[in-house]
Amino acid sequence: MPLIFNRYKKYILWSTLIVLCVLILIPAIHLLRTKLNQQLPQVPLAAGYSNDASQLNLTKVYKVVDIPAEPEAMRAQIRALLSEAKAKHLKVSIAGAQHSMGGHSIYPDGIVLNMLPYKQMQFDPQSNILSIGSGALWQDAIAYLDGYGKSIAVMQSFSNFSIGGSMSVNGHGWQKNSPPLSSSVISFTLMNAQGEILNCSRTENPELFKLALGGYGLFGVILDVKLKVVDNAALNFHSVAVDPADFVAQYQRYVTDNPKVQFAYGRLRISNKHFLEQASLNYFEQSPEKPASLDAQRNSNTELKRIVFRGSADSEYGKRLRWDLESSLNKVIPLSVFSRNEILDEHASLIENKDPNSTDLLHEYFIPEQNLSSFIKQIKPILQASKIDLLNITLREVKPDHDAFMNYAREPVFGLVFLFNQQKNPAQEQEMQRLTNQLFEVAIQNKGTFYLPYRLHISRENMRLAYPQADQFFQLKQKYDPSEIFNNQFYLHYR
């Protein structure tokens, strides 16, 4: 009997050790290896060059000019640079945080206006309007408004993008029942190619208002912006597992029909196991509690979250681990309360790629609600056959946009945001171009569109299938800037 009991104890001991290895040691080793591989030295940007978030658009420029922070000096500096550009036959591009990926903020041998220093802010509690310099980052605005108990109405998912840059790409967020950012813009001032400052709104210079929102810096320099703001709020997180084929119906049930929901997004599973066969629907519901201040809610888990995310790059084990960890965490997070501002104040450093040999590239396709399931089914074999590493697919609702001229949401759509990890070599660049056009074709077949801030892999002819208003857009560019002073690689490719 003691011998059997001892054998049983050994069995329990070894079983426990094996379980601990599987649950703790193996993931820990995987994450540690990821951390070490992500500590390679970064190559600094050489003087006289500009690049963007793609890290694939290194371009020699005439000069990069940091715009002054003081309003009068800023305006005088830009006018002087426009005069210099005309005299020397140079082009001018406009840069913020440069998170676009197709050279939208760069022109070869041109002048780059770095707008980031211009970030003055003023809030009017009577009108609930934030006046802000276009170079400010969303994180600056969030921290400022938090002191007033207010919050940004519409913005994209990361807070370290600039206000002017987000307006120029007409970004959208994951705010429930919301059109893109353009819907929250009340007005802005724009310096045109002649150095004149024009006020643009839905009633004053309305054509320029529509063109500059999503106009990629081609119609002038956005200077001062007036934005709608909303109340800050305390929110509870909820997550449900859904079938991708049933995503629209479940979104209607859990989000659209629930008046307390403020934010929502979906996530598709991208591991080989259950590839695009599982999804999560995640949403934030208003709580009766008072929201805590932003400073009180800042957490220190950014690097751990980043390593978990980076551990999924080129690793089936890492992709499964990330899905399992997020699914487990989603069951615990509902016990916590977040403020609206805390949720919005999420930095792109959460997913930052520190490997100098690869880069992360975004795609986004906007698909009408009724065609979402068909689109997901059709892209599955394309993605499985691709040699490009897929890191993430997020789904966000976007309501119709009636403000921007180059609008991508002309009916209720879901934006599918793809993040790929691409090696920095010609073979992967060629493969990415092939993949982009395959996904584009499926989007067009499903009456969808694609987002323009990313790599310029779609031909100018095909771009017009998604944006039939493009020819008129470029004709209006000639009307407002016949000398094409404001220019960039996006314009060179698609005009």
Walkthrough of the structure:
The chain is of the alpha+beta class and 495 residues long. Among the domains are: 1-37; 234-455, Alpha-Beta Plaits. 36% of the residues lie in helices and 23% in strands. It contains 15 helices and 19 strands. The chain has helices spanning 2-37, 71-88, 138-146, 163-168, 206-212, 247-256, 294-297, 302-310, 316-332, 340-344, 372-385, 426-445, 460-466, 470-480, 489-494; strands at 49-50, 59-60, 63-66, 92-95, 111-114, 121-124, 129-133, 150-152, 185-191, 197-201, 221-231, 234-242, 261-268, 279-286, 337-339, 358-368, 389-398, 413-423, 449-450. The strands form four sheets. An eight-stranded antiparallel β-sheet has the order 15-12-14-13-17-18-16-19, sandwiched between helices. Strands 6, 7, 8, 9, 10 and 11 form a six-stranded antiparallel β-sheet that branches. It has a three-stranded parallel β-sheet with strand order 3-5-4, covered by helices on one side. A hairpin with an 8-residue loop joins strand 1 (49-50) and strand 2. Residues 1-17 have low confidence and may be disordered.
